[in-house]
Design a protein that fits this description.
The protein is an alpha+beta fold. The chain has one domain (3-244): Jelly Rolls (Sandwich). It has helices spanning 24-36, 42-45, 58-75, 78-81, 84-90, 103-108, 119-142, and strands spanning 3-5, 15-19, 155-161, 170-174, 178-185, 189-195, 198-202, 211-215, 219-227, 236-244. A hairpin with a 2-residue loop joins strand 6 and strand 7 (198-202).
Length: 251
């Protein structure tokens, strides 16, 4: 079961949260995707003459790593299986460091290219359709007003960078009803979404990973990244998956 929560508004809420913490299937998929995004697939794809290993196609590597992550979640006690710090301390999978890639590589790349958009990560992003499909059907049951239909494939990616100046605020307009779920948030960073007097804050740990945000079409949200370590100016602070619904007939 999932629960959708919304501030009350005469015209329908501009922002909702859809809690899927009690839905093991969605929890497992979203958790596996978050961890897949951190994995360095090169050790699996590229051959190593020293140990006699042969190169493997990405389409074989992706499901193999996904299966490993799923098995770990299934075999780990409930209090630990959703905890990324526990998983990182126990996994043998090679992880990217830093996970977002070197800033010089990101700055030099074109939109949709570079370390954030490798073929492996593009596959990760595509599977978020499954997460949004499930939360869409939960919201469809809970919502009193009409919502735009979610028809996969409909997931895009938004990269947020820390501001170089004193104003960290980022404005983002939602032309259609849109689900927002974090793929990665930099350590010691928070993201506060504000729209029409309502706010929701995401953090790199804890309950953030157990719900999706949903923004109603026609609204503009202010996203405020706060970097507690003071190290993210001009650097990537978050990668978000956006599940874009079709335009509502009545909108």
């Amino acid at each position: 079961m999932m629960a959708a929560h919304a501030p009350t508004s005469q015209d329908g809420p501009p922002l909702r949260t859809i809690d899927f913490s009690q839905n093991p299937a969605v929890m497992q998929v979203s958790t596996a995707l978050r961890r897949l995004w951190l994995v360095d697939p090169e050790n699996f794809v590229v051959s190593n003459p020293e140990d006699g290993s042969e190169s493997r196609a990405l389409e074989h590597v992706f499901p193999d790593i996904t299966r490993q992550l799923g098995n770990w979640i299934a075999e780990t006690p409930p209090n630990d299986c959703w905890d990324d710090s526990v998983w990182k301390s126990q996994t043998d999978l090679p992880l990217l460091d830093p996970p977002e890639g070197q800033q010089a590589e990101i700055d030099a790349s074109e939109a949709g290219e570079g370390p954030l958009f490798t073929p492996f990560r593009q596959q990760v992003y595509g599977v978020y359709d499954h997460v949004f499909w499930d939360v869409y059907h939960s919201l469809k049951v809970e919502a009193e007003e009409e919502i735009g239909e979610f028809r996969p494939p409909a997931t895009t990616v938004m990269v947020l960078e820390g501001s170089e100046d004193e104003s960290p605020e980022i404005s983002h307009s939602f032309p259609v009803d849109t689900f927002v779920y974090p793929v990665w948030i930099a350590p010691k960073t928070t993201l506060t979404f504000s729209v029409d007097g309502h706010e929701k804050t995401l953090t790199p740990v804890g309950h953030t990973w157990k719900f999706s945000l949903w923004f109603r079409a026609g609204n503009t949200a202010t996203i405020t990244p706060q970097d507690g370590a003071g190290e993210r100016r001009g650097r990537v602070v978050a990668v978000l998956a956006l599940g874009q619904c079709e335009e509502r007939i009545s909108s």
